[in-house]
Amino acid sequence: MLSLTRISKSFGGLPVLQEVSLEIAAGEVHALMGENGAGKSTLMKVAAGLHAPDGGTMRLKGAAFAPDSPHAALLAGVAMIHQELMPIPDMTVGENVLLGIEPCGPLGMVDRAQVLERARTLLAELESDLSPDAPMRSLSVGQTQVVEIAKALGRNADVLLMDEPTAALSDHEATALFRAIGRLKARGVAVVYTTHKMDEVFRLADRITVLRDGRHVITSPSGELDQERLIAHMVGRPMSEIFPARGKVAPEVVLSVRNLSRKGAFHDVSFHIRKGEVLGLAGLMGAGRTEVASAVAGLTPADSGEMRLGDREFRPATPHEALAAGVAMVTEDRKGMGIIPVLPVRENMTLSALDSMSPGGLINRTAESAAVQEGMRAFGVRASGPEQPVGQLSGGNQQKVLIARALLNRPEVVVLDEPTRGIDVGAKAEIYSLVRRLTDEGRAVLLVSSELPEVIALSHRLLVLRQGKVAAELDAATASQEEVLRHAMPL
Fold this sequence. Notes:
Elements: E1 2-11, E2 14-24, E3 29-33, H1 40-47, E4 55-60, E5 63-64, H2 70-76, E6 78-81, H3 93-97, H4 112-125, H5 141-153, E7 159-163, H6 171-186, E8 190-194, H7 198-204, E9 207-212, E10 215-221, H8 227-235, E11 253-262, E12 266-274, E13 278-282, H9 289-296, E14 304-309, E15 312-313, H10 319-325, E16 327-330, H11 334-337, H12 345-350, H13 365-379, H14 395-407, E17 413-417, H15 425-440, E18 444-448, H16 452-458, E19 461-466, E20 469-475, H17 481-488
Parallel strand pairs: 3-8, 3-9, 6-7, 7-8, 13-18, 13-19, 16-17, 17-18
Antiparallel strand pairs: 1-2, 1-4, 4-5, 9-10, 11-12, 11-14, 14-15, 19-20
Helix pairs in contact: 4-5, 13-14
């Protein structure tokens, strides 16, 4: 269906793709795998007409294919679902889904009844009950992702390029997408799929291609690879020891929480975390994990309950108050509530520690520069320098900037909400090492993760939430995924 031959692409003299060749068959799901920076998204953007290749050729259904714009690629039959969501917030769901292909009446006016009907049909294919009349501004990140996928399905493309399509989806939404992909395969559509979720790769893919450092490494039927071999191809080394050993926990309780409640989110939640301990919050989507973590960090305060930091009462009304008391948080929404993409690494890293660097209200640039250089070194931030816009970094490096920011104020408790979401396996290993380093330094860590192997391996104890309440407290060293799920499932 689509062939790319010896595709090369550079940005600012830096090669991103180096003579990469790829063939996608009709009716197959072809997984494109690799670490952040391997060239996966760039290769798909070349095929989707966003980037012109510096070298190489493409063919679509046997004919020469050289789109000079995404519109030209769409007209030829190639559509892309982007990792970065691009909705038009002041339009409705239906208007976004049918954008550019609106059905029109005899006078050229948009037939709004048809827009609603067709949008509803496309959303139903994804088993979504979103109203086509709903304003995009009212949607969650996951719902916005559903709309973007419905928009791509509405193009009736021969080739569908999916870049991290489930990153923000709930389990139900992801399962509905997988069923839709099965129907696309049956219609002969070629699907190129990138993800950092290994279970999705082996569930969906017929073949897998691995890129590393902008070069083609291997293309193989998925049945001939297992997770360990795939990871080894991606990072160039075995990853059998991806999780560091758990550190020792001191008897001193750093944070204690008692009967914490917030209406409609969680009820009567109690726990404690000791010095050097990782307490993992596990549970299904909507169980209240992020809401509890946000209450501890002052992002969305609880209605009732008691919290104590050591022997001090702790009830933050804002993240600033929590930070001043000794609790820092890295939120799950790196793009929306973490980084400021257009600002440099320097300003992003020091954003929450300016008080300590601003005697008399003026920023001490020498102190700021020293703190940033040390943060970049200590956390292994790979960037051209402190002045590079943080939005140009890979997801893993952005996450390390945010963790460095959280630690500049030397907090006693660090709240990590989905710290490895949307980053590759190599970067995950680095984040895992950072978590171990935090506990080695005696900090208490509250960890939220949707990946059960991750939250079990990194934690000392697990608090399983179910429908906003504590369902179980488990020893992570002996807990199994099946046991955690058994406690997490609704009654």
